[in-house]
Amino acid sequence: MSTDSPTSEPLSQDLVFDILSNTRRRMVLYYLREHGGPASVQEIAEQIAALENDVPPEELSRQQRKRVYVSLYQTHLPKLENAGIIAYDDSDGQVTLTERAMDIDSYLTPTTEETYPWQLHYLGLAIVGGLLFVLSSLGVPVIAAIPMLALGVVLMLAFGVSAAIQYYQHSQRKRALPAELRESEDR
Question: What is the model's pTM?
Answer without folding.
Answer: 0.59
